[in-house]
Amino acid sequence: MRTSNLQDIKNRYNIVGNCDALNRAIDIALQVANTDLSVLIVGESGVGKEIIPRLIHDHSTRKGKNYFAINCGAIPEGTIDSELFGHEKGAFTDAIGESKGYFGIADKGTIFLDEVGELPLATQARLLRVLETGEYIRVGGQQVLKTDVRVVAATNVNIRKAISEGRFREDLYYRLNTIPIQMPPLRERGNDILLLFRLFAMQVAERYRLPRITLSEEAQQRMLKYKWPGNVRQLKNITEQMSVLSEKREIDAQTIAQFIPDDHETTLPATIAPASGPHSYENEREALYKVLFELRANVGELRRELNGLRQQIDDATTLSSQAQALNNQFQPNMPATIGDSHRQDAEDAEAEEIADVPESLNLNDQERQVIIKALERNNGNRSKTAQELGISSRTLYRKLRQYGLT
To answer: Which of 64, 118, 251, 368 could disulfide-pair with 403, CB 3.0 to 4.6 Å?
Structure first.
């Protein structure tokens, strides 16, 4: 593409930067715009993936038709099928009328599915059918409907990893990935970081009528070395913070250190899970331990209730025996078997109930681990830990002493 044409496109869509990877992404988007091929945009959160589908739509033959940008991760799983494909009247409780859904309304237009990796598997099957045949069925309906929609999708997750974990359909991935477009992270865009900083600083200065901030040479080097885990979105936020909060209008290295973390290696806002390696079942294991812990507590409560019932039976038997002894004083010839028979029946009934309760669930280790993790989540606060576990503070304290955690 000619440099002048590329710059016109950037000016129109407010795209700032000259790195080769960004220019390549724009060039591919313009080449594929006049086709109906599916496009999958891949890139980290905050890199500006939403610009590409808008550019594709505006330069296609569908530019006069509807364009919808849908964040798949923001729609609840229970309603996403209805949102995308519509529903018939009465299909569910709140379906007071019929709905065409986005694929019905966007006929002849373009739909941008952001965070497509968050779609439930059932919805992925529906989407695959639309992509392959243009056919879909509304929720609660039976009639097969047709739509002519161009689909552009984007994701910031590792789709191949999601496929290996069974969270994403492989056939849908290949159908969406007809034309892949890779958006570069900000840390790989070199001097684009400084260009974007100047743009954001100017925008804040004009909006709030403040003197525009600038960067010293040392501050510029700090900006270029930082990994920017939040990409362009994070750069914009930090620029706005410095513009409003900094007393100095020239930001030096000491000042910028107050706004940019010292960790230069991280490329994620928070460590969630290892980027590679086997799937971790820690969350599932912890949930199971918590269920088992609650089960053990319920069994303990049942035993206490049975002990109370046994005490009541013993008290009643004692009273019955005393009454029988008094009765025997007046009726010496009557066999003294009523109290013994009552006691025997009660003990037999009690034995049958207690026999149904397991003596031990062998969950001491799991229970100890659940308590330790709950204490860590609540920063050692015992009251909050007991409330989370659904037990009393006294019971928690007893458990802590039992497992040597005090």
So the answer is: 368
Q: 197 near 235, Cβ under 8 Å?
A: yes
Q: Please state whether beta strands 39-42 and 179-182 pair in parallel, antiparallel, or not at all (unpaired).
A: parallel
Residues 88-116 have pLDDT tens digits of: 987 777 777 889 999 999 999 999 999 99
Cα–Cα distance, 172 to 122 (Å, whole number): 12
Q: Which two tokens stand for residue 29?
A: 């988007």
Coil, strand, or helix at residue 348? helix
d(CA 9, CA 106) in angstroms, rounded, equals: 25
| Averaged pLDDT score across all residues of the chain | 83
β-strands 214-215, 179-182 pairing: unpaired
- Which has the closest alpha carbon to 226: 213, 236, 235? 235
Q: What is the Cα gyration radius of the chain?
A: 34
How far is the CA of 64 from the CAs of 59, 107, 109, 119, in angstroms? 10, 12, 8, 28
- Cβ–Cβ under 8 Å, residues 59 and 27: no
pLDDT digits (tens, 9 = 90+) for 276-298: 444 445 555 555 655 565 666 66
Burial degree of 91 (CB within 10 A; 0-12, 13-18, 19+)? middle
CB 22 within 8 A of CB 182: no
In the chain, the amino acid numbered 368 is R
